[in-house]
Design a protein that fits this description.
The protein is mainly beta. It contains 13 helices and 72 strands. Strands 53, 54, 55, 56 and 57 form a 5-stranded antiparallel β-sheet that branches. A 4-stranded antiparallel β-sheet has the order 1-30-29-28. It has a 4-stranded antiparallel β-sheet with strand order 2-3-4-5. A hairpin with a 5-residue loop joins strand 8 and strand 9. The N terminus is likely disordered.
Length: 1086
Amino acid sequence: MIRIFIKLLYSLTFIFFSCDKHEKRFIRFEEESGLIFENNLEYNENLNPYTYRNFYNGGGVALGDINNDGLIDVYFTGNIVDNKLFLNKGNFYFEDITSTAGVACSYVWSTGATFADVNGDGFLDIYVCKSGPPGGKNRNNELFINNGDLTFTEKSKEYNLNITGLSVHSAFFDYDKDGDLDCYILNNSFRNVGGYDLIEGQRKIPDPDGQGNKFFENVENKFIDVTQKVNIFSSNIGFGLGITLSDFNNDGWTDIFISNDFFEKDYLYINNKDKTFSENSSKYFKSLSLGSMGADSADLDNDLLTDLFVTEMLPKSLERKKTKAVYDSWDKHQLAVSKGYYYQYPRNVLQRNYGDSGFLEIGRYSNLAATEWSWASMIFDMDNDGLRDIFIANGIFKDLLDRDYLAYMANKERISNLMKSGDEVIKKLIDIMPSKAVKNNIYKNNGDFDFTELTDKWGFDTPSFSNGMAFGDLDNDGDQDIVINNVNMKSFVYKNQNNNQKSKSISFNLKGVNNNKNAIGTKLTIYYGKGKSSMTEHFPSRGFQSSISNKIHFGVGESEKIDSLIISWPNNKISKLYNLKTNITHNIDQKNSSNSNIPSLFNKKNEEKLNQIDVLNHRHIENKFVDFNKERLVPQMFSNEGPAITSSDLNNDNAPDFFIGSSKNQISSLFLSSGLSYKKIETPFNFNKKSEDTDAVFFDSDNDGDDDLYVSSGGKSFSRYDSNLNDRLYVNEGNGKFKLSNSSFLFDKPFSTGAVAVGDFNNDSLIDVFVGERYDVDSYGIPVSGRLYKNLGNNKFINIKIKSFENIGLITSAKWVDINSDNNLDLVVAGEWMSIKVFINIDGDFIDKTKDYALDKSNGLWNDVEIEDIDHDGDFDIIAANFGENNFYKANMKMFVNDFDLNGFKEQIICYEIGGKNYPILDKDELIAQLPTIKKKIVYYKDYSNLSIDQIFEKETIESSTVLNLNTLQSSIFINEGGKFKRISLPPEINYSTMYDIEIVEKNNRGIKIVVGGNQYNIKPQFGRQDASKGYFLNIEISNDSISYSNLEPLNIDGQIRKFEIFNLNNIKSIAVGINNEKTKFFEYN
């Protein structure tokens, strides 16, 4: 009777929620479903987070059909409590069969669980990883072989999988394509984290106690340890928390990604196709998570390439960041990199697979970088719209990293006092440790790696301490339901209320061959609708300590059929099926596959490639100056903005000659063409090697028919009085000889130059020079000035005082252009924390008309501008390089600049605007280290987290501050529409990183072709470097009075691109690329 009532309740609930479009997409369904599990954890003096660091890592969830009845069953793992197995009885009702099945794993700490048909008999077995304290009769990992009658027999020893250690998870897959399932077992190191130094090469030394990660090859149902043979690391610095399987390089073979917690970097094992792997994380990824937790891989943008998402512990809000997050210093970060621990940052990462360009880390662009203490991440289509969404399980029951707790409650003095007070010292310490549940996160995929958080709207508004989770269609209605394992609270079961008649799906059950009965490792690609496609890979083990079912799901929106399905089976044979109906499950047998291969499934290539050519040999060597030692509060360095490159045909041989600037203490060089090679000339540039070259331009300064050379100096590694900051004019004496002119420019004081523009502003046939100051070398943020030098002839220039050029901003770029068509050159200037400015030339004076041209709200972190009539309407448009959107900056930020501690030097405090108030982004310790006078005012981290800048400093201090703001971070084009500029963002990929240079490489009647490039590596670890660009070609076209973009092609150039120089070499279009701290590269292009 009760069972009938529950079925009726389920049916009524389904009808009610399906009909009401205003209800949440997911509803909690534990009580109705019978899926009741609670992973209760009680600490004591002997077993607690201090004696066992993974105490609150929680348990996992495994989904699979154990009796082949077409219904997905559920297995929970518990830490101190027994595991539970629930049989799906249909209609979203489950029965606890743990006791009769014999899979409770009583009195032992279970972690990850995996359903896999290990022995190939057609029934799913269960492999359970064990962890926690040593000891106990079943402390080893256990393999429960399915007897086919809803009972299981433990046979881990028989299969040689009875591993004892701190096992976290396992993954079964066919790594060598021999038809059976091999096994990777992820083990967490027994060693104390604090007992390590950043020693180079530790990961290559196997754990002497045999406790490291393990890889087993299946040989006739006996698992043989081949860890060392296949090149898997098994050291005692492996703090693995996640296994993610995918064909990351798209070659048809399964690769392995391992998420490592703490200081050890993550591993990417590329399958060499010869029963070995190569660890290549540094080859494929530019940035990694520091404390990596769970991970998942899937195709997020339907380009048929698998992307990767990895979770970490960075809190979501600025308030919680200030109380929970701890960051490495620049020096420690650099030490870790130098010892082989790579570029790791405290945040989630989203690695976009960009084909030949490798992976681009764009988590900050997608607003996925900070999601709290995050464990499981799962990527699947929650609303059947054809785009995979992201679910993130969050929470830690006791907040081990609370800054106030560590500083004031768990310090040496407090511990000493507790020890004097009696017993249970550790328990008392944990009793006062903060505990706060947080929500899990749901991010809806909007396409193009744009995500919207819909946590509350979709029904996940309950705060929790969640760990493992899995998804699957528990009621066979065509959408994905969710099961979550929590600590110290009941598990969550969410039923998906999707309208499956409107948003449809298609599912597949695969029948494999040999001993891989569920065809693990299969890749499926569907084609449907108008040019739509989608790809998925079949790997059940994923997320955090969890596994999903073998039923494969695609959301397809409103499509009633898919046009074709292409299956690449684990043995690389192919099946093709056509005109398959949606909203049903299709059963497909590998026996019907063919030997035909489809090359397009693998090795997707970028269509356009540069052809690198050998022109000359020059390497830029950046000096080792650290800006943070001079100005502690700046978020990044500003002294690595070279090399400068410029070219001219100096010897009239129809071949370009090049000047390439240097950093401080490196000699700049002129490369003069000589037949088929180049002659390197260092004189007289060697006399100025102590300067840092920031810009350079050839122009005929004396009207003698040859080009002279102006070289600007800058950087922050100088005092404000250092004459090495002075720019230089080198006069061309012919035959490749230049002479430094000490009298051409008389500077009123040394300053750091950010931009140089040459042009005849007064129409006297002599070329004049505008010099834009980059910043005050001692105080970043103070607006600085531009200077106009009028050419008097005979290499004599005089500074013309222009009122509007004073205190313009932090200038990075300037261009002369007749923007109002009056036959007089006007000036466009851009820089950081300032708008793009327009100065109109009126009889030799310059009037700031920025507001008239509607550019007064264009404040950005601009690095370069180019001027061109993009839309062929007779006026000039602007193309501008900005900092991009894949970073910590936001469009509403402000920077306050003042001498906050009254020591004679100004500091800069960058703030987020939240609720109309401005909150410093700085860590409390970082701020106090620079401004110790406020230490007494800010005692607790919690207090600081809620203080706006006007609550930290006096009103008079705030009112006397220079305040700069940001309006946009997007690299953009500005279309001139009748004297008003309208901003249009450049494509998202260009905004994945900061752009430093833009050049126009081609013009035609359809528009223009540009090249852009950038990156900035020298950013504090808490913010993370800008590395998600390898340069791009882009066509900007005009059609029917509208602007469009096409042929966005990556250049595949690694490094920090600073300057492009376009030239023709033997009538072949070519480009020189100046890369900071790297060799200058040369390419031919189409």
